[in-house]
Amino acid sequence: MNTPVPINIERMEHIKRIEFDRPRVNIPGSTIAGSTLSVDHAWAKVFTEPNPAERIELKARIKRLLKEQNAVLVAHYYVHPDLQDLAEETGGCVSDSLEMARFGSNHPAQTVVVCGVRFMGETAKILNPEKRVLMPELEAECSLDLGCPPDEFAAFCDAHPDRIVVVYANTSAAVKARADWMVTSSIGLKIVAHLHAQGKKIIWAPDRHLGGYIQTQTGADMLLWQGSCLVHDEFKTAELIELRKQHPNAKLLVHPEAPASIVALADVVGSTTQIIKAAQTLDATEFIVATDKGIFHKMKSAAPGKNFIEAPTAGNSATCKSCAQCPWMAMNGLANLALVLENGKNEIQVDPLVGLRAKQSIQRMLDFAQGLNLTQGQTQIPIITQAPGTSEHGIGPA
Ligand code: 13P
Ligand code: SF4
Question: How many CB atoms neighbour CB 267 within 10 A?
Fold first, then answer.
C-alpha cells in the first residue's frame, strides 16, 4: 500500500472573527427569555480551495478511506458542493439535520462522518451511541447553539415550571437534555399546534424568529428565547421588495429562521428539504431563495432548468457574516475530511447520561412524526404561506 501524502491543512486555513447576538437572562424569573441582547464573538476557520490536482487526489483518497473504515458520509445541504457530491456518490446522504441523524441510525456502517455543524454530529451520536461519529471540524459552531448556554437556559426553565420545554435541533446535547421535546424546522409547527391544542404553555428556544413564526401561526402561549441565526438574520426587507419588483413571476422561498418581515413576503416557508421540494413542485420557473446559498447546489440538480436568485443581504463586504453562507458549515472541506478519516480524531463524545436524557426529547418528535405517518424521508411538511393580506395558510403533506 502507498504511504499517504501528509495533508498540509495549516496551509489551507486562516481564522476569521464572527459577531453574533447573545441573549442574556439577567432578570431572574423574567417572562422574556434572554431579554437583553449583547454582541458576542466567536471564530471560524476559512479554508483555501484545494487546486484541481489536490481536489482529484483528495476525493479519491476519501472514497478509498470510507471503504477501508466501513464509514458513511452524511452531509447538510449548506456544506461545500464537493462534500455533498461525495456523500451521494459513496452511498451516503445529503439532507437536513434530522434525516442526517436518521440515515446514520439505519445504515449498517459502524462509523458515521457528519459534514455539518457540531449539533448535527451530537444528534447523530445521541441517536447512535454505539457508533463512532466523526466530524471534519468539531469547532463548527452555530450561533443559535452558542446563544443558548445550558446553565442559563436551565435557570430560565426552572423559573417557569408550569411550561413544556420545546427546543430546536440547533442546540447542544445538554439543552436537549433539559427539554421535553426537540423539534426541527420541518415539524416544529405541527408539534406546537398539538401541544397548544392540549392547553399546554410553552418555553421555546433558541430561535426567536422560528419561535415567533410558530407562535403567530398557532396562537400558542410561548415564551421565546431570543437567539437568532447570524446568516438568516441578515436578509434585507426593502432590498427584497425591490428584487421582487424586478422578478414579478418569481416565487419567494424562505427558511423560517429569517426575520418576520422576510417571512411575511414568502410564498413558501419551510425547512431546507421543503424549500428544495417547493422548487421542484411549484409551477414556476424562477425562485428567490432566502437561506444559506449552499442549498443552490442541490436545488439546481433537483429542479434543472429553473432559475434561482439569492435573496439580498447586506453584501459580502458589509460584515463577515452577511454573505448568506454559514461560516461554520464552510469549515467542512475535502482536506479536513480526508484527515479525520485517516487519523480518527475529531470523534464526537456525548456524556452518556446527558445523551440518554436528550434522546427522550428527540424520540418524542420521532414518535410524533411516525404517528402522523411521516416516516423516514417524509417528515417534511411544506408550510405554505399565502400572499400577505390573505388570512389562509395551508399545511399539508408533500
Ligand atoms: P434544516 O433543518 O431546515 O436543514 O435547517 C438547519 C439549519 O441549521 C438551518 O440554518
Ligand atoms: Fe446555525 Fe445559522 Fe449556521 Fe444554520 S446557518 S448552522 S442556524 S449559524
Answer: 18
Rounded to an integer, the average pLDDT of 270-293 is 95
- Look at residues 334, 325, 262, 256 and name the one whose alpha carbon lies nearest to residue 296: 325
Helix (H) and strand (E) counts in the chain: 15, 16
Q: What atom in ligand 1 is closest to the CA of residue 232?
A: 10
Q: Which amino acid is at 152?
A: E
Contact indicator for 41, 22 with CB cutoff of 8 Å: no
Nearest CA to 47 among 386, 325, 255? 325
Strand partners, 114: 74
The CB of 184 under 6 Å from ligand 1? The reply is yes
* pLDDT for the residue 300: 97
Closest ligand 1 atom to Cα of 229 = 10
Tell me which of 20, 76, 93, 380 to substitute to probe ligand 1's pocket, judged by most ligand atoms within 8 Å of the beta carbon: 76
Tens of pLDDT, residues 244-256: 999 999 999 999 9
Atom 8 (ligand 1) nearest CA: 170
- Residue 375 CB neighbours (<10 A): 11
Distance 129 CA to ligand 2 centre (A): 24
Asked whether 321 and 234 are in contact (CB, 8 A), the reply is yes
Q: Decide which of 108 and 33 is more confident.
A: 108
Q: Ligand 1: which of 97, 292, 295, 331 to mutate, judged by most atoms within 8 Å of the beta carbon?
A: 97
**C-alpha distances in angstroms, 398 versus 170, 280, 281, 307, 395?**
24, 11, 9, 22, 9
Residue 247, judged by CB atoms within 10 A of its CB (0-12, 13-18, 19+), counts as: middle
